[in-house]
Amino acid sequence: MATIGVDCNVTLTNANVNDGGPVGFFVKPGTYTMAQPRRAQGRPTAGGTVAYVETGLGKREFSFVVMCRGNVRNFDGTTNAAKARQWHDRLWSFYQRVNESHTFVDPLADSYQVRFAACEDRVIPYGKAQLWVLEWETRVVLREV
Predict the structure, then answer these.
(1) pLDDT tens, 77-117?
(2) What is the pTM of this model?
(3) How much of the chain is helix, strand and coil, in % rounded to 5?
(4) Closest by alpha carbon to 141, among 38, 31, 13?
(5) Residue 118 contacts by C-beta under 8 Å, 6 or more apart in sequence?
(6) Taking the CB of residue 10, how many other CB atoms lie within 10 A of it?
(7) What pLDDT, on a 0 to 100 scale, did the predictor assign at position 75?
(8) In what order do the strands lie in the sheet with 33-35?
(9) Domains, the chain, ordered by start
């Protein structure tokens, strides 16, 4: 079971993925952001101009890069058993769930209902020309529902 601060930074949960259990991911340092825009509505004034009145806060948007690599270290220093392809496949199993929301737990252990807005892979090949080992850095954008 994925536990933030033990073997992951964030988790995703969906009843149709991993038998409904949380799946943890490691976030690349310095890439996690949460934005929450203010909503404003234009209203005409008596003088014929438009005044913008704030109507509240918008939905949150989370953006971060997931490290889909082998030999990732857990917080206690032990090596996580998952391989690069496993991290990548786990993440994409959530992304491919169209019209479904997921429970996202952020690094502060706050929980949100979200949907994927985008998922973008950066492939990292390395090794000799004849032997390519793939790793990924996957940029994820989640929007609160």
Answers:
(1) 999 999 999 999 999 999 999 999 999 999 999 999 999 99
(2) 0.86
(3) 10, 50, 40
(4) 31
(5) 139, 140, 141
(6) 24
(7) 94
(8) 23-25, 10-13, 102-105, 111-126, 133-144, 61-68, 33-35
(9) 10-144 (2.40.30)
